[in-house]
Amino acid sequence: MSSDEASSPYDSDSSESSSSEEEQQQIAKPVFISKKNRTESPHQASTEDEDKRKREVLLSKLSTDQTITSEGETNKPSNEDFDGIDDTDDLNPEEEYNAWKQREVMRFNRDQQLIIEKEILKEEALQRAKK
What share of the chain in percent tops pLDDT 90? Predict the structure, then answer.
């Protein structure tokens, strides 16, 4: 076998494939444009894109929030769908304090239990090491 006839899986026809790819896809070369000749700055272009995106988001939210029924009435989202801020603070301070205190005690007990379990595991490991 000659070297032309033998081919390995690692051989590639890079010269053939690259030339055909170049013909298929023409890539525009970057062209330098001086500041004097530029019509808009990159910052202005990005803010315009952001404004367009914000408008699209607002329009989509409006269209999903207020759907028009066949009678022509608008269905406003119910309070159950509201994922906003919880503004029920300070309605009953004593009850809130007691609930917080109970949660704090539960956290403390959980942390203490974890510490005790770690100490027990260490003691068992030391006892196994001594044997």
Answer: 27
pLDDT at 11: 54
The amino acid present at 102, given as its one-letter code, is Q
Element (H, E) at 15: helix 14-24
Q: Mention every residue, 6+ apart, whose C-beta is less than 8 A from residue 69.
A: 75
Q: 3-state class of 85 per DSSP?
A: coil
Can you give the residue ranges of every domain in the chain? 40-76, 94-131
Global confidence as pTM: 0.33
Q: Is there a contact between 105 and 98 (Cβ–Cβ < 8 Å)?
A: no
In the chain, beta strands by DSSP E? 67-68, 74-75
Quote the CA–CA distance of 56 and 83 in Å, as a whole number: 21
Tell me which residue has tokens 């510490």: 115
The two structure tokens encoding residue 28: 């525009």
The DSSP call for residue 84 is S
